Amino acid sequence: MGNAAMIDVSLTHEIDNYLKRLFPICRSITGEGNRETLRILQEIVPLQVKEVPSGTDVYDWTIPQEWNIRDAWIEDEAGRRLIDFSDSNLHVVSYSEPVDAWLDWDELQSHLHYREDLPEAIPYRTTYYNLGWSFCVNGEQYEMLRASKGKLHARIDSSFSDGSLSYGELLISGRLKKEILLSCYICHPSMANDSLSGVLLTAFLANHLLAMQEELNYSYRIVFVPETIGAIAYCATHEADMRKIESGFVVTTVGGPGKLGYKQSFDASHPINRIIEQVFQEKNIDRVIYPFDIHGSDERQYSSQGFRINVASISKDKYYEYPFYHTSLDNLDFVRSEAIVETLEIYEKVISKLDKNIIYRNKMPNCEVMLSKHDLYPKTGGSFLPSGLEAALDARLWLLFLCDGGVSLLEIAEQTGLSIDTLYDSACEMENKGILERG
Ligand code: ZN
């Protein structure tokens, strides 16, 4: 694709550096790894970091104790370290309780996870709400443990404490009180596509929105939360704010080598889905459409009955779909910064159009406006106009014809075949001349 040549080299370089710094950190739904991640993200964008204390009730859930882990390993009787947390933090099931025990193979076996169908990978597993401990290993390590003589020493140096769940938040105000939500999740340890790629894309997208804040119509609520419990906690502590949200995105799995696509929000005819579709068509990109499904990420919370926010996800190698999903092979060989930038550009374009989807009203509805009097009629005479001028004139005429305070610019774009960008530019021009007003 022609896009590759246009990609901003300094941006990919910057994203590469952050990928390398953030990838090794052991994140979970709570803990120091999440705070360290948020601190690093603050270098990109001025996030506020907030804490919800353990034990806080959030709807039907309760914020759990904070989990932290320092080290873990399995050794044989000769002191050989067969499994080492410092090689990969996926080796320990997230939220494992501490253990220090000598075990037979039969006992240890019930505390091991591996993927028979993908033996080169260490799987990713969690045990957030069931006390227990386990290790995750690849097929070779599993066989090595099975073959080892004598007992095996399993050690997990982890702790639970009354602490808090951390999240990051940034509000960017535009002219309108109505908001668009950008949400990503910070709870995954060393995996790159799910969802470190989404976290970095969100940070750089937030940065882009901050740079163009003066032009923004909508306000933007940008959150970095642990998945599920973090999104629930955010909704519970921001119930009134959430009602201002018009639509939004859960940004995840945006940096794989596979195809671009999007998961539709629950209402397939909602503007957010139509605008995403328009952008893919304009860019002539073949995309995969994933219709709304009840399984997924934090749209499960944001779109629940009480909130019903239309939330879509644009992805490159969507979660569930790629073979390395939730394994150690979802790593920095699988994810490339160029792919993240490619998806970032789609997000930027989609948001730019979404932000222009405004309703206008013609203040002079009785007969035609005399465009030349307002310097809105092309001065070039003759029956044919250069195409740029022709589109501008068409946009003005259609806007005057259709803007009755009840039709959005997206609907006018769909009806006329003109782009929402052209219509918006013309509408702003006529707004400045006092002919249109926001409806
Ligand atoms: Zn995941």
Can you give a write-up of this model?
The chain is of the alpha/beta class and 439 residues long. It has 14 helices and 19 strands. The chain has helices at residues 3-6, 9-22, 32-41, 105-109, 139-147, 192-211, 229-237, 239-242, 271-282, 299-302, 337-355, 387-402, 409-416, 420-432, and strands at residues 48-53, 57-58, 61-62, 66-75, 81-84, 99-103, 112-113, 135-136, 152-161, 164-172, 179-185, 219-225, 245-250, 260-263, 288-290, 310-316, 359-362, 404-408, 436-438. The strands form five sheets. It has an eight-stranded mixed sheet, with helices on both faces. A hairpin with a 2-residue loop joins strand 2 and strand 3 (61-62). Helix 6 (192-211) crosses helix 11 and helix 12 (387-402) crosses helix 14. The longest helix is centred in the middle third of the chain and has 20 residues, at 192-211. It starts with a helix and ends with a strand. Mean pLDDT is 96; it is low at 1-5.
